[in-house]
Amino acid sequence: MREALDQWNFVIAAYAIGIIGTLIMVAWSWLSMRAAEARRDRSREQ
Amino acid sequence: MHGFANPARFLRLARALTAPLLVLGVVLAGAALWYGLFHAPQERLQGDTVRILFIHVPVAWLGMGGWTAIAIASAVELVWRHPLAALAARAAAVPGAVFTFLCLASGSLWGRPAWGTWWVWDGRLTSMLVLLFLYFGYIALAGAVAREGGSSRIVAIFGLVGAINIPIIHYSVIWWNSLHQPPSLSMGGSAMAGEFLLGLAVSTLGFSLIFAGVVLARMRALLADIQAEARLRRKAEGVV
Asked: Hey, which of B20, B64, B215, B230 has its CA 20 to 30 A from B117?
């Protein structure tokens, strides 16, 4: 028996995982960089 | 290349490039995915699922490209003892692992309607999963060495040895029977229609710029941590 699959469900899921995963990685790397540079600057001022 | 061995010179360049690379990458990748989702035509055999190509192929290439970058930086670290090569290798691991995971996830979502299964233990899929585990091992080893203060050479050797998996991934669809299709693009030409090729090129450029921007951001973070730790150590020793 052949299943009737809506191809768009798979397309949207793949795009959602790809876009959300990439944006989380970009945000995390940017925020962790800013936090690390702020820690370094604070250590210079102390 | 040795000109960038100076962390101050590297930081000047990295500060100027990080945000533009990330913004331009997000814009280009977003435009290509918009095209893939709403404007690319259906493919004769695969229908709408071919749209997954615009996200699956760039992240697959960059998952492999990430480890290739780790191997090159590891060789530079071992041979020339370039001070930033080790940082570059460590910085490429996280985006490489993320893109490899996204490749496996998007491939699984493509495989279900195209092949009728989420997963098969064939050469291409299994070697890509091995690459993800290699990334996990590399990140764990680099973290342990950074915490415990061991030799960074062992991390570089792991990076070089792990590169053996890259040609295995590439040739897996040629060496073994696989549900995965053979390469559509090669140095000799393309079996892909033009309306897919241009969108794929823009998507690949966008994701590559994102990868480069994330690597620079990770390198800046790692360098800042090293500098802060060194300063605190000097203070504790009463040097500053």
From this structure: B64
